[in-house]
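If it is no trouble, can you show me the amino acids of a protein and the tokens describing how it folds?
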Amino acid sequence: MKDALTALLQQTLQQLVNEGTLESIEGVSPQIDHTRDPSHGDLATNLAMVLAKRAGMPPRDLAAKLVAALPANEIIAKTEVAGPGFINFTLSQASHTQGITRILDAGSDYGRRPCDPDKKVQVEFVSANPTGPLHVGHGRGAAIGDSICRLLAATGWSVQREFYYNDAGQQIANLALSVQARAHGLTPDDTGWPEDGYQGEYIIDLANAFVAKDAVSAADREITASGNTDNLEDIRDFAVAWLRREQDADLQAFAVKFDEYFLESSLYANDAVERTVERLVASGHTYEQDDALWLRSSDFGDDKDRVMRKREGGYTYFVPDVAYHLNKWERGYKRVINEQGADHHSTITRVRAGLQGLDVGIPEGWPEYVLHQMVTVMRDGAEVKLSKRAGSYVTLRDLIDWVGRDATRFFLAARAATSQLTFDIDLALSQSNENPVYYIQYAHARVASVKRKALEIDAQWTPATGLEHLATLKESEELALALILTKYPEVVASAAERLEPHDIANFLRDVAAHFHSFYNAHKMLDPAQPDMSTARLALAEATRIVIASGLDLLGVSAPESM
């Protein structure tokens, strides 16, 4: 509808040029927005305020001329000038309801574009260290990251999902020592327990599995425990594989799949880290000082230079990240998005500086980042901090077990990533209008119920039949619902562009609210009024299609009954 109104305004502007009111409309593109208050109409433009200076007249006067010059059309029912020069448009009944036909014709493809194989994007998310179960922060990253992937795919991108395993470094060494200590019968209270050892009950399970010589499938290889508790390397390999399997199981329960699992250790095994450092040295963006190797990251926007190779040997943590992202670039991903926790904020500038310093054509601002804030879990009015299995944090599996996958995914993705999130277990379990995921799914289930009842009344009553009788839809609740459904493609495109899946959650809440208002205000099916009943059935089916599609973008199911 915005496109149709834009075309009308373009014709109007040309008419004002012909009349001499405007000398030129070069570079003018009318901005049209939905009104927040229905009493102000359906759509509005600030075009008169933008062009007032060019026309040499007050905005309200120019707005009046624009209104007077509008071509005859069947789109607009009423036009009025408001405030300092806004033009508000109330759409015709046909304009409200014609979107229903488009929705039913497109079905599940409504608001989506076909995949363009030339539009490649890689999204890296979760990327948890294989040192323990996935915690709620990883869960939020999984929900947001997977929803971003779904949004990008819905808007034509060819998406590759990647998980980066930090399976090298001191944390992995601490994991191996912790498992070894448990295998020897030590507890965190005993002398000899590793200083930075992991204390969750999963370490006991892991140690028992190792001693029992259990086989663990890891990626494309099979790792079998030797049971030798003195072989720390064997323990480390087994522990990483065992925890990778556990994390994979949690992600499967969360309906999150990856196309690629990339191991940090591979960057060392094939000398990629060393080659990356050599390229930075050769490019002239490094220097030696105090027996350490430094990156001139201040040349690329960092507040100071950064150490790459420490005095005592070994690389700082951002260096393998530079090597990893160079690998992404060399794999042909000109667009890369990293969804990570807010604690990664400090690494963004130095990783980008390292990539710029390679002088291989990587543009500024590559890769893109979406950083999510922390999650606080509440139950019975108190914060939940501990998990029996993990020891010191609530796990993703805890949330799934408590409230189910749908509520977990919705709640973790339904707020802006930049906002801290309070996950209220009691709210997620409630079957009330205050629980947004229940409220939205209930709207979908209600439509399914209406369709079943329609067939019981008359087998000829179908949504398709109702398309012939859309002119009977005249109630304010009907028109408001029909109009908001037409916004869906615009919402999807905007959410994908801004990488903000919470916009979809907010939109779905609005759609559900409009549908429930419509459902509660009017009789859906009346044998005495078959034309109106089938038209309402068509409107309900359009609602169901949009809700199901939006929930799918969040990885949430659309139940037929509740």
User: Anything to note?
Assistant: The radius of gyration is 29 Å. The first strand starts at residue 32 and ends at 34. The chain has a mean pLDDT of 93. The chain has 21 helices and 17 strands.
